[in-house]
Amino acid sequence: MTMPRRSLWPPLAVLTLLGLAALLLSVTLGSAALSLADVWALARGEGSPLARTLIFELRIPRSLSAFAVGGLLAVAGALMQVLLRNPLADPYVLGLSGGASVGALAAMLAGLGGAMITGSAFAGAFLSTLLVFGLAHGTGSWTPSRLLLTGVVVAAGWGAVITLMLAISPAERLPGMLYWLMGDLSYSHSPWPPLALLLLICLLLMPLGRSLNVMARGPLQAAALGVNVRPLEWSIYLAASVLTATAVTTAGSIGFVGLVVPHMLRMVLGNDQRLILPACALAGGTLLVLADTLARTLIAPEQLPVGVITALLGVPTFLYLLYRSR
Amino acid sequence: MTTSTPVVRPSSVCTSASNGQFGGALGPAAFFGALLALALAGPAAGEAHAGSLCAIDDREREVCLDQPAERIAALSPGATELVYAAGAGEKVVAVVAFSDYPPEARDVPSVGSHTRMDMETLVTLNPDLVIGWMTGNPPEQLETIEALGVPVFYIEPRDFEDVSSAIERLALLADTREEGERVAAEFRHGMAALAERYVDAEPVSVFYQVWDEPLMTINDEHLIGKVLTLCGGVNVYGELSRLVPRIDDESVLAADPEAILAGGMGEENRGWLTHWQQYPSLTAVERDNLYFVPPSLIQRPTPRLLEGSRLFCEQLDRARAKR
Asked: B201-321 has which CATH code?
């Protein structure tokens, strides 16, 4: 199988345009009615103070956060699928979101808010990464299946801890905790750290594209072709962990994006990591921006958790592509 | 109230409706710093506040308004009731789901569930005072509201006096003190009269059922537990450490309460009580001491709690009469 030699730029340009369109849509849509003309007036520095607050304080930060989180999750999912050579791998398969959730819920149980929840979630994700990697490394050999099993079992352990915490938590804290677990963007404060990380990681992965393509075929072939497998595996794992931890701490554990976006893109664009990884960043971001726009407008003023919408949008799209492909 | 004299005040704890300044950083250090500033300034600082309306909220922060609140957003059903009780019902511009009392509140625009507010709708309704629920509303969203320059007054009544005091403080901020103080005094005196009447009443052991699946009750710290104590009831689960403990049928059988009081899904539903009739050996069943209490009268810390408490006390009286 040879990689189809096609230019990387046309698909990326199309995805960029789609992403921009989704962002524009999300900024103009909301439970408060603002017309395109209002948005245009604001862009020229005019418009009412109310519209200014709605757009600049509420919608734009939230939409950018959604884009960043979606991109981070999709890239992390694509990396995990390469690392584990398993189509079922997603950013959460190795227990990262479990660790982050336990951290976040513990902070909520202790009555802490805002930055403490974020910090605690990040600490939980980091702990989970160390645990899985340390244990999978163990005394024996280091194989993808061993890593996967370790991760799945650690994730199951975190799952039990989460259930226990929900069971013993006071009733009035439960809704907040459940929303966090379902994934929700109303927590996100500043979109800049996740956006910066997304950009940085895309730039860092660019030169690794070829090695990743070889890795996707298996470590033996990769080694035979001159790739230094072990350090590459470590860096993939570390990169995916940081991406996932950042996404989870920004918006809770949003499912589905990390699993499905890479697969969808592979079906359409082929499995060239040089193309897939930046495409994942753009398509994942676009999907989550659209999903979040629906989540906050569909039955407004009631707010839906965005994770529900990502699955409802993603499942039919994915099944259609799967059915159509041979 | 329109004259605005330049006053020295601890800006980190004062939110000002007119200029929308709000530091956001409200750590204990800032709070104690502010206390210190007040102490150093001496009595004059208190007088300097005369130009504005200030009240301490249940997070111990001083919230100051330059003008009486005219557009109030109440972010819990309980807060809505308290604002109406304070005589400021006409000023309520936003409520949350389940704000069903008083009936007029149903016609006020809702900003969604109290656990997830629709911030856009809230901002569009342009409130000049937001009544937040300390443990019920998501802290991130309340912080965002403050960052947008709208003062948030946190409330969380934990005992009977807190209810009266919340009404008085809300009435102060809305400049409806006459009505608010009347309602607060009525509640305070009503509860005091009950306390006086039942101070020497024969104790009755009681199990109060909050929910059926899972079976939940309350401990003595809970406001309902305090009503039980007030009426001369002895909560069989009063010593448990959780505010709303989850229990099982076995422990109810073991505790063998003299009376079982239950809320329910609706205002008429007695279904939860029939469950206990399968245990005829229970003292409460044997003496037919299974009582229904409409949850809306007892589960919200509002003036209606007085009516609920009277009902509670009457039911315990009936249980005493069956001895």
From this structure: 3.40.50.1980
